[in-house]
Amino acid sequence: MARKPGSTPQAMKNRAAKTAAAIAPASALAQPAEKPKKRTSPAQFAREVRAEARKITWTSRKETWITSVMVGIMVVMASAFLFGADALISFLIGLVLKLAKAG
């Protein structure tokens, strides 16, 4: 079985070290002064928006149908459970009230 590239222990350690360095907060003294952010032109902004919009993937009709059916099944199951719980609690409260009235 072939190993995936970058799955050696050393490569994993290197990635972990880079991640830890990126996540770790730098001390206030070590932080460089903030640079003013470069403003992008409206044309550049529009190009970046289009590039990001091209990355969107839409689900297929089959995936949408299956997901909708699963949601419907879960709604029916949840409503049946809540109906049963409500009926049980109503029955128990009715019993308690009958006992209180009789006594």
From TrEMBL:
Alphabetical UniProt keywords: Cell membrane, Membrane, Protein transport, Translocation, Transmembrane, Transmembrane helix, Transport
Subcellular location: Cell membrane; Membrane
Pfam families found in the cross-reference section: SecE
Membrane-crossing segments per the record: 65-97
Coiled-coil ranges per UniProt: none
Membrane topology designation: Single-pass membrane protein
Domain of life assignment: Bacteria
Principal location: membrane
Function comment: Essential subunit of the Sec protein translocation channel SecYEG. Clamps together the 2 halves of SecY. May contact the channel plug during translocation.
Assembly with partners or alone: Component of the Sec protein translocase complex. Heterotrimer consisting of SecY, SecE and SecG subunits. The heterotrimers can form oligomers, although 1 heterotrimer is thought to be able to translocate proteins. Interacts with the ribosome. Interacts with SecDF, and other proteins may be involved. Interacts with SecA.
HAMAP family: SecE
Protein family: Belongs to the SecE/SEC61-gamma family.
Protein name, as recorded: Protein translocase subunit SecE
Lineage, highest ranks first: Bacteria, Pseudomonadati, Pseudomonadota, Alphaproteobacteria, Caulobacterales
Gene: secE
